[in-house]
Structure prediction request, 606 residues.
Amino acid sequence: MDYKKLSSEILSKGSFLCIGLDTDLTKIPKHLLDTEDPQFEFNKQIVDATHHFAIAYKPNLAFYEAEGVKGWQSLEKTVCYIKDNYPDLFVIADAKRGDIGNTSKLYAKAFFEKLPFDAITVAPYMGEDSITPFLEYPNKWVILLALTSNKGSLDFQHNANADTDQSLHQEVLTKSKKWSTKQNMMYVVGATQADKLREIREIVPDNFLLVPGVGAQGGSLEEVAKYGMNDSCGLIVNSSREIIYASNDKNFAGAAAKIAFEKYQQPMRQYLQAYGLLWCNFFLPSISSVIYGRFFLYSPSKI
Amino acid sequence: MDYKKLSSEILSKGSFLCIGLDTDLTKIPKHLLDTEDPQFEFNKQIVDATHHFAIAYKPNLAFYEAEGVKGWQSLEKTVCYIKDNYPDLFVIADAKRGDIGNTSKLYAKAFFEKLPFDAITVAPYMGEDSITPFLEYPNKWVILLALTSNKGSLDFQHNANADTDQSLHQEVLTKSKKWSTKQNMMYVVGATQADKLREIREIVPDNFLLVPGVGAQGGSLEEVAKYGMNDSCGLIVNSSREIIYASNDKNFAGAAAKIAFEKYQQPMRQYLQAYGLLWCNFFLPSISSVIYGRFFLYSPSKI
Prediction:
């Protein structure tokens, strides 16, 4: 998927939401454990119920690797199911890979050829040759860790470089910009550090940013939109646990859709309108509201 | 496996060699492609032929992930085969993982519970909480990237911190030492940067170092031993391609053993003797020589 298509999907859905498929067998509804492939079954129902409100899905590899070979089968089924049924969705392998050049080439093969992911998260510590093999695939993306949402981001990512006066995460942005284009490179910037978004936008005004840490981790969607949005939106905001584990009864997917719609897609549409990227349509009922009605108002169980 | 046991394995074999199982289906002998599981079959024969000369094996995950679900099956079979048949071998998942704390916990589960690896390589960019979940497993190890062997290591790992006067890789060593002990933490230091080993040993005198980059990448074993060895040896030197792809005929495993013995284990034994960690036995034929004879002198094909 290219930059233009991704921006147009965001405007067409009025959403820049990514849903993290951190599918943990100890947290999904118990009744799914009797199915043949509980991780896949959970993901399928979540995607079917929420895809009107999200433009991207992000399986985190750890949750699948923790189940061994069976987990990889569930991962493969999940990404193929999404791309077969909803080809306009953007699917991210949250894998945080990175190795010497020859080896990164094989990771690129794993995620872009063997599996149909659109993008992969990559760690920058090993530098240019660990990243560039992923950039050779047309319409595929690297999402490079810049400033992460966790406490450990304070350990090294803010280090001030004595020679350049840039902090490490700023230098990651500055250097990697030279190896890539806005068409194949995005950056991870945690919502918990939204105050840094303004400086980051000075270095990478055009690139998409993948922003985790809204929701369970405490980041503010409003601040992310305020400091991070550019004239193509340029944001993909991720929420995982808050959406996918909204309920653990039989209508868990409906409950997830309710959160995705009310807490994310609705405000996101408003931010896109407020920043002049979408027209306001006061007189026409929005498509989202119609879909919302279908999912919740006529839902057989109370949410 | 604990520190003492690992040191004693090194002295008992007169070797600190790790063989990297970077098993690429385009490079292994063609006749293996007709077997049910070529990656596993190749690994099994390599391990059976070389285990007298090596104390560790290191499958790099990229080579298995590139084959999808089948690759994970081959990986699982490989690590289980090694631990079942040679429980004294140290097996490293070269995975370069690292994520927010909750997610790193699942990677630890994947490699230390679901699979019986002794150690995993971890990337430091995301800081303390991305690393500590791996440290909670007794007798399991984190091998943290400090100074890698590739060209891209020059991009960020030598950055001078304006506040501490340490370069980034030195700071990774200094900070991570506080989160761990020499019993559960090793560091990756590339042999191509052996001149930095002296400074690194000042920061982490007791920790084991995993040293890639000898052989195909051009690092010098002699320099690594000179600047890196401590009084428990403290080194695990990896070679992958040079050993495992020594030949691609039917006796590829014998050819691998020949390189492992002649180019690595023999000099390693001499370094261990030269640095006073092993006695020299001039009068007794060494066990290695007997094994060497078995593998090569009576080998049916010329190597």
